[in-house]
Amino acid sequence: MRCWRLPLLLLFFFWAMPPVPGGRHYPHSAVLDGSSRYRLSWAHQGDTIAFRLEVRTRGYVGFGFSSTGAMTSADMVVGGLDRGKPYLQDCFTNADRILKKDSQQDYHLEYAMENNTHTILAFSRQLHTCDPNDKSLTESTVRVIWAYHEKDFKYGGQNYHGSNRGTKSLRLLNPEKNAVIPSSLPYFDLANQNVAIPEQDTTYWCQMFKIPILHEKHHVIKVEPLIQKGHESIVHHMLLYQCSSSLNDSVLDYGHECYHPNMPDSFLTCQTVIFAWAIGGEGFIYPPHVGLSIGTALDPQYVLMEVHYDNPSYLEVLGCKYKKSYMPSSPASYHSLCALDAEKPTGIHVFAVLLHAHLAGRALRMRHFRKGSELQLLAYDDEFDFNFQEFQYLKEERTILPGDNLVTECHYSTLNRSDMTWGGFSTRNEMCLSYLVYYPKINLTRCESIPDLMEQLQFIGVKQIYRPVRTWPFIIKSPKQYKNLSFVDAMNKFKWSREQGHSYNDYVLKLPLNVRCTKTENAEWTIHGMMALPPEIERPYTAEPIICSSSSRLNANLFLTVLIVVHISAIASRNHEPFVQL
Ligand SMILES: *[C@@H]1O[C@H](CO)[C@@H](O)[C@H](O)[C@H]1NC(C)=O
Ligand SMILES: *[C@@H]1O[C@H](CO)[C@@H](O)[C@H](O)[C@H]1NC(C)=O
Ligand SMILES: *[C@@H]1O[C@H](CO)[C@@H](O)[C@H](O)[C@H]1NC(C)=O
Ligand SMILES: *[C@@H]1O[C@H](CO)[C@@H](O)[C@H](O)[C@H]1NC(C)=O
Ligand SMILES: *[C@@H]1O[C@H](CO)[C@@H](O)[C@H](O)[C@H]1NC(C)=O
């Protein structure tokens, strides 16, 4: 009897009131732990976000947000069912990881259930609650922290500290992707075979691949990483470049370390980034009206896959795969990279951005300027996590017009480092870049910029360098203390104080930039770029004020919820099994 009574009961739920407890639709979900015991699902609408936790425990479940990923100074909620009686408390932890109850309760239980193995809790809150103990939820990365225990929760009890716990970075406000891709679509893999990773902490491994020959235009609509199980932490990022179409199949025979003096010349023809993936990212699905064109004469035929392996401690043999699926589809075409050419007067439309930095990166943003005005940020991440870098889909496509300026800004923390941090390929060097995915395709491979080097050197008192400059690094001529030193050596020799560091920062941000952009099939990478000044901002962008709302708004719903509680409890107790509770 009991077995079929419960489903009937639930059906009643769904029919009676569409936004019913437990009946909410959660378009996003993620397993938070390594053994699939803790699953989070969530839904976001307007200012409200709703969560559903399904955890393999009959004790309490903890969930929260922490700026560092640690259990200190975090916004937490703790809930469960104690002998059938549901509880949920809005809490916070202090700097000593002591859990305290929030004086303002902003998490609202919508549904709770426990069976022989699992606890399910559904609750909601406002994105901005006005409570300093709650974390405001934005488009930035958020480090979700989770915990569970076999016993129910008691304040000050030992069971808090003995829990299973962990952290995972997520972007909670990602737009919904409801693209359903049929599994029967054709696809192809680009996979490195048995690469022996050298015993060094950074390896950029390059291998050429040939795109399958198709005799008409097709579009790639989805790309997903294929990483051998257990090697997830070694594969740091992958880039796919389009190479010259005049190559032949002899280039496919072997891989080589990239940026190496002995690497084959054919690699140098691969300049246009057509896809990027970085650690923590998942598959990428193009919007319905866009795809990566393959199969025509202008499309990629030979591609170079560059894999950054991060191998600080050991040697491994690795087979890493890069998988693409494709299908004949819509007429649009797309191309991925970093700036705009004047050839498209109607501009390009950006729909996704990947912000990239290395270990010192803390906050990244991409700013967009047009004729003296700053527009809304194209993308931002105020809590950048090096281990979680994926394409952010924009809420709305953004048009970039000729003459617009795009600036990627990176804020770093190097407080723990005693030496200067340099730009470079290692994760302990830095990068500051963004990959934009846009359409239609334009003739541009990439853009780079560097604040004028001579002016940077003037900050530390350099007067003259040897000219003409034909080599990198160039050499300093005077004054004497820097004579014959390179840029890097001179900067390292200077005795930096904290104040000098700060004023150098301010100084560099105002310097003219040397900007270098290249076109496809244009092998010349000009040594001297074009000088450009940082955009002048007459009308800065003013962000819309955050409207925070405390819990009072939810009272209207509460009445209905209370009605359901009574009803369910009555049925449940008749069954002598408090299966469904609220
Ligand atoms: C308990 O609930 C979980 C989560 O919904 C479910 O996967 C599991 O099958 C349930 N167990 C039983 C015995 O019904
Ligand atoms: C392929 O390219 C290589 C290197 O550019 C060249 O030496 C070789 O002759 C080419 N082979 C064919 C069949 O064109
Ligand atoms: C800085 O270094 C100290 C000591 O090595 C370490 O405890 C701390 O976590 C580090 N802080 C950061 C932000 O990396
Ligand atoms: C700098 O290099 C030049 C040319 O190599 C050399 O003649 C000169 O002695 C060097 N000066 C110093 C201070 O090392
Ligand atoms: C891109 O521009 C370069 C330089 O003007 C030209 O040589 C090349 O053919 C162009 N490529 C395409 C695909 O239009």
Largest sheet strand order: 1-2-3-9-8-36
The CATH homologous superfamily of the domain at 28-170: Cellobiose dehydrogenase, cytochrome domain
Principal-axis shape equals: globular
The CATH class label of the domain at 28-170 is Mainly Beta
Give the beta-strand count: 36
Computed Rg: 27 Å
- Poorly predicted ranges (pLDDT <50, ≥5 residues)? 1-21, 314-342, 552-582
CATH architecture of the domain at 28-170: Sandwich
In the CATH scheme, what's the topology name of the domain at 28-170? Immunoglobulin-like
The biggest beta sheet is recorded as: 6 strands, antiparallel
| Average residue pLDDT | 79
Beta-strand fraction estimate: 35-45%
Count of separate DSSP helical elements: 5
| Helicity range | 10-25%
- End-to-end Cα distance, whole Å, is 22 Å
The bound ligands are: 2-acetamido-2-deoxy-beta-D-glucopyranose
Structural class, judged by helices and strands? Answer: mainly beta
